[in-house]
Sequence to fold (319 residues):
Amino acid sequence: MELEVRHLRALCAIADTGSLHKAARFLGMSQPSLTTQLRRIENALGAELFIRGRTGCRPTPLGRDVLSRARPLVAQMSLLVSETRAAAARADGTRLRIGSTASRALAGWLRRLRQRLPGTDLTLHMDVSANALLRAVAAGQLDVAFVHEVEGCPLRVPDGLEEHVIVQREPQFISMARDHPAAAAPVVDLADLADDRWMVDPTVDGEWDGLRRVLNAAGIDPPVLHADYHTAASLIVVGEAVAPCQPTSGPRDDMAIRPLRDDPLAVRLLLYHRPGDGTIPVYGTARTELSAAYREAALRTVTYRQWLLRHGSPLLCAG
Fold:
């Protein structure tokens, strides 16, 4: 019996799940079939690779050695398959796989792309981690990624990706309860929020580090809650917390959204893709339509539009 990639993939699955039952389910096969396959692999190698017990399977010393060699091969084969499929899709222009962190511009961007690229299969993968999206682009799992980079917290960009700046500096506003005392002013000072609980999502790359840097610079040390921003909204509306938010966030009857004085919190909005080839026109269309969609979202939000007017933003003059 000669070992094939599917055999190595099975060994990795057993080691990763610690169970023949779970590994079989992951691989889409029956447990008896996987058990038989493992027995044949071990017979071919002449030694046991896993110790079976009541609590599951764990690699033997020889099994660990085999796995250390198998994992890179399985990863390389997966990369080869994904990159080949991506190249085939790009060749006939039938697919554009988009990755993105959260943005109010997304709906408009997808709508515009469907109009400009009829017949193209557009897919969207959302992730709170910009760095994870960039790794997916580099691995050929995504074609483009629209991400934000928190000021002072550079992203870990894989070698070879092309970067395009959509917005050089987007201010981050603050969301608070409608009846918060600071909401009475059109612009809020950080000092007015020193006694509030601040909410931040630590899974968003750079978010907590960026906020901590700004709060320290302002000389305030408020209590901080770590949670996702969906949870934050329910706490904000009842006055239990305040949180940074995108300036394109739409108005809400139960929440006030205000800019911070001097805009201490900001991000860069960026689009990444692999080096250009025959898909350059598609990438160019993606950039053009993303910029237009962002402008639409920005001008649709009264508070942000007023901020843009005060700062003479070039977004107001864009075509």
User: Anything to note?
Assistant: The chain has a mean pLDDT of 89. Residues 99 and 125 are 5 Å apart (CA to CA). The two ends are 65 Å apart (CA to CA). The longest strand covers residues 162-171.
